[in-house]
């Protein structure tokens, strides 16, 4: 191969690599977003239905994923397969603690969350070594709330850590009702209410009481690559989620109608969940410091942020 052909070959390889590294092709931008299960993700589903990101960013293509837990979302974001993930604060802090290059871009919601058990288990003290507790994963917000309550009642935040079973919310409901695998399930709306409506089950721990103050049940985080390399797409996402939250708060009846395709429930039931006095849909992220301090003290993470700017992108509303 002569010198001229070698130069052409190098240029072709360089152009190929540059095309593969970009999320923008022929002027079209692709944003990849993952959520999980439950009414807490209603603003994400409204954003999808109303095409708010596409409205803010002409030519954008949004790829939507629904994954079982935050571990799956973290792995996909590390692999460069996702730009945005919705999750609770504790698993976000675990990822940050392990060195993930990501920050919180928005708060999203709070919905009722609690631990439901069979009636023969009257309280946390009744959960013995033979019992198993279903929740999305170790390190989830449900796990950390259980640990907070455990420390308060028994002086041991890890008393129940060897009794956890990882299940998605829908699978956890089935496991609790079948009675063969688990004796309790830490879950949220609408699975919480479905379980409490069944005879033989009751609430033994309320999530907000365990935490001791208001907090964001779900936040949205983005990778640094997405935030820094495509600021237009990032801003379109931030504006889109604000529009979605506003829509739910200002037009809950219309939002409930939109969401019937996502849940096996009628419009009135969804409307009831959206307007529950305990529920809140807000882009303000709440509770990071309280979660972080507890997780550091209980050795679920090894470091705590010094300044909130270390975990929040600029302009993110927050209440520590």
TrEMBL record:
Task: Answer yes or no on keyword DNA damage.
Answer: no
Could you say which residues form the signal peptide? 1-23
Q: Does the keyword rRNA processing apply?
A: no
Query: Which keywords accompany this UniProt record?
Result: Signal
- What name does this protein carry? ABC transporter substrate-binding protein
